[in-house]
Amino acid sequence: MESDLHQIIHSSQPLTLEHVRYFLYQLLRGLKYIHSANVLHRDLKPSNLLVNENCELKIGDFGMARGLGADPRQAKAFLTEYVATRWYRAPELLLSLHRYTRAIDMWSVGCIFAEMLGRRQLFPGRNYVHQLQLIMAVLGTPPAGVMAAIGAERVRAYVQSLPPRPPVPWESLFGAAEPAALALLGRMLRFDPRERVGVAEALRHPFLAKYHDPEDEPECVPAFDFAFDRQALTKEEIKAAIVAEIADFHARRDGIRRQIALAPSGGAGGGVPGGGGGLANGGVNVANVGSVSMANANINVASVNMGNAGITVANTNTNVTNINVNVAN
To answer: Residues in domain Protein kinase (predicted)?
Structure first.
């Protein structure tokens, strides 16, 4: 991918409402799959959305991602609060509500949506308190239900000490946007996560009707099972799991080696088209091969023609010891 959405938003190149619509649709389509797998991304922001010259968008950087259990009570369980870059962080994280769901990703999507519309960050807070102040300056005072759910007494006392503020109409911030866009934005940026639009409903919104296709918006089946993540393993069980993982890796590696050893050599016109062991325009890409040890190997290569193979080997760690290689013709 040649660029990311942050670079595009903050460049001088045109960004029409159709661009915004297409980028938002792709983001929601990808997020639908992620959420259906019981995964929260937790760090959606423009710089983590990769874009190519055809305006195709991909979601990247899953370093902060976290799995959810299938049990709704597990899905709402306490998770680490320090997630998401501050400017795209949902109010429930700032207000220490302790329990959050997929709605935190939808808040981030709303912030990205607004940034595309205005070509500037909507809530560029300098710190925690300033971030909260910027959000309330637009959304107004949090509703009573959110106030009551604030877990930290100091945070609740601070919010309650502020004078009541009404919400700012989205039209006054993004007057050039069509009403359907602002209606969807308003559904995403809600103080109460229970009132925030879900990803499937957002895809069905009239603003995205041009691209919405239920048959082309896949879900992860089956969803990921993170039950193992809730198991309290003993030291010996962890050791056994590591040994089992190593054994599985070696078994798969040895199976691949056997397949390679049994593959046709390509001689006498067999194997690769063209005969004589020719490799033309192969376009083979080998990445993350791992650690390969070749000791005391005698390799004889005869009459091999490799033209335009386009073979790329990346991220390998190869130890070659005492190899006698004879290349003839």
So the answer is: 1-208
Cα dihedral 196, 165, 45, 49 sign: positive
* Structural domain total, the chain: 1
The partner residues of 282 in beta bridges, in order of sequence, read none
Task: With respect to residue 213, please indicate whether it lies within any of the assigned structural domains.
Answer: yes
CATH for 192: 1.10.510.10
pLDDT tens profile 1-54: 789 999 999 999 999 999 999 999 999 999 999 999 999 999 999 999 999 999
What is the DSSP code (8-state) at residue 64? T
Tokens (6 digits) for 5: 């959405």
Catalytic residues: 43
Residues 6+ apart with CB under 8 A from 302: 327, 328, 329
Task: Tell the burial category of 138 from Cβ atoms under 10 Å away from its Cβ (0-12, 13-18, 19+).
Answer: middle
CA angle 121, 122, 123 (to 5 degrees): 95
Write down the pLDDT at residue 99: 72
Tokens describing residue 263 = 């593959």
At residue 266, the pLDDT reads: 55
pLDDT band at 314 (very low <50, low <70, confident <90, very high): very low
Structural domain for 9, as ranges: 3-228
Q: For residue 291, is it within any domain?
A: no
Flag whether 287 is in a domain.
Answer: no
Amino acid at 14: P
Answering whether pTM is above 0.85, one says no
Is residue 269 domain-resident? no
Task: Tell whether the torsion through CA atoms of 109, 115, 116 and 118 is positive or negative.
Answer: positive
